[in-house]
Design goal:
single chain, alpha/beta, 7-stranded mixed beta sheet
Length: about 230
């Protein structure tokens, strides 16, 4: 088992789904799943929260709690600010991992690969999934295609692109402010699916994935299936 800190942000004031971090999928909470998956890879798992009941639950799951200041628990605070506060609290570790428990389509192997990328020199390693489509702005202009290509065409005409999975990221030293393209190294996710829960419909979709109703399954973390090699 490796020695690196994992930070999981879990504030109690979600508006889209009340107490979203504690929503149940397949009989376990999103936060509980993230903690247990992390504990397969490291014994240093930290939950940043301002909510006393979430703090108690996190401790019961085996995590250490970082008391988040109230000014970092408002609706308009960026996760990067929460990560920097936790990084300072942890004593500025060389390599740090952050997980989004509301984007649960990751496993211990994904965490391990992001850490390996950061240790190998990546400034910020982010779990990512390949993307082959075309993105349009609200006004209709395609923003991810070469200027001399038609807006719609074969997938082969579009250069390799990645979607930030949202679930796992690892960085060396201090997190850049702001990020720049050259700072980011995409790490292929174990599943091509990207889903961050921010609505009841997305929570329902996640439960359908877990139950296998869409032809794919979301399995609970199994330590024996994800050996960690230092």
């Amino acid at each position: 088992m490796s020695d690196f800190p994992v930070i999981i942000p879990a504030r109690g004031g979600s508006k889209s789904i009340p107490r979203k971090n504690m929503a149940q999928v397949g009989g376990q909470t999103l936060l509980g799943r993230a903690i247990r998956t992390s504990l397969v890879t490291t014994w240093r798992v930290y939950v940043s929260t301002e909510d006393s009941s979430i703090a108690s639950y996190a401790r019961a799951c085996g995590a250490t709690v970082i008391d988040r200041p109230a000014e970092l628990a408002t609706d308009d605070v960026q996760n990067d600010d929460v990560y920097r506060h936790a990084w300072e609290w942890l004593g500025r570790p060389e390599v740090t991992v952050a997980l989004q428990c509301t984007a649960p389509l990751f496993d211990a192997g994904d965490v391990r690969r992001c850490v390996a990328a950061a240790r190998d020199g990546a400034r910020v390693a982010v779990l990512a999934a390949p993307f082959h489509g075309v993105i349009f702005e609200a006004g209709g202009a395609a923003i991810n295609r070469p200027n001399d290509r038609p807006a719609l065409g074969r997938q082969q005409m579009i250069s390799e692109q990645w979607i930030f999975h949202g679930a796992v990221m690892a960085w060396r030293d201090e997190l850049p402010t702001p990020w720049h393209r050259e700072d980011i190294t995409p790490v292929p996710a174990s599943t091509p699916l990207c889903l961050e829960v921010d609505s009841p419909e997305e929570l329902g979709l996640l439960n359908a994935i877990h139950d296998g109703r869409l032809g794919v399954g979301l399995q609970p973390p199994r330590p024996e299936a994800t050996p960690i090699v230092d």
